[in-house]
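re: ur question from yesterday

yeah so i grabbed the chain u mentioned. its 340 aa long if i counted rite. heres the sequnce exactly as i have it in my notes:
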Amino acid sequence: MARILYGQMADGTPVHSYTISADKGLTATILDMGGTITAIGVADRDGHVRNVVLGLKNLAAYQASGWWNCLIGRYANRLKNGVTIGGRHYPLAQDDNGVTLHGGRGQSWGARLWTVTEASDTQLRLRLVSPDGDQGFPGTVTVEVTYTAQDDGLRLDYAATTDAPTVINLTNHIYFNLSGQGSVLPQVLQLNADGVTETDPHQIPSGRIAPVKGSAFDFRTPRAVGAMVDSDEPQMAIARGYDHNFVLNKSATWAARLSDAQSGIQLEVFTTEPGMQVYSTNNVRPGQFNAQGAEIQKRDGLALETQHFPNSPNQPDFPSTELMPGQSFRSTTIFRFSKA
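ran it thru and got these structure tokens back, copy pasting raw so excuse formatting
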């Protein structure tokens, strides 16, 4: 395990990177700020190692973004008009449309320093204690996320407890590019999902699970990410591309497959979570640069965020995200790499 000083946060706090590796060569570099994954090194078909993560230029860029390649909580994705827990309403940090995204802007867990509780050649465990009232949510929540380098992949194990009734939805907002740079549109995606949560114009689920069959969301058989990314279907027009929660057919089996003809690398995603938010990097601010110093363009990355459904606390028919004292939230996601 290699630990180096990566930089300093805006307030001068030092941030370190930890590189873990498996016997057969896969490496992953993770920051103690936000559990940010800056690199996953994978051998391509020619044996050359490529970083398949779309990273940012430096620590300042990660801190300013707050949501790039990092851990998201307390509630990943979107909530509308706050949440009601145990008969009490919590308004949260809303935008002008009443939407709270990833816990609220300016409050991201990805821009916070996490405590390293274990570090070895193959494993890194991070802990964050989120106090009562953090981001407007009730209860003191203790979260641990363990990153484990495996011979063919990177495993993330999430665990959380609370001292008061609350809701929780955790993910890592990681952007993949199996070529290492350039557009992801030629890369081929397959999803183990027959449905997608339909949304309103503010990307809040209506409660209806729409079948993907025959639509721009139909990745049941492999097809290029770019095949219908600019479709004028109403749901696609709302998000200006893919930014939707797919309802996975089965937990604890493969959820997604992404492959790249140029590098010869394939990614398979396995998860215990019921959903996956697929985001085709539709909104990129000018002046954001990748780790190679090139300005990031629209569609340069594909986020595959395993999680519960958006706005679940306000949709009783969705899988519950409630966490009670005495309970433990646990989930696992594995990113597994092979030759395409």
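noticed a couple things. The chain has one domain: 2-339. also The mean pLDDT is 96.
anyway ttyl
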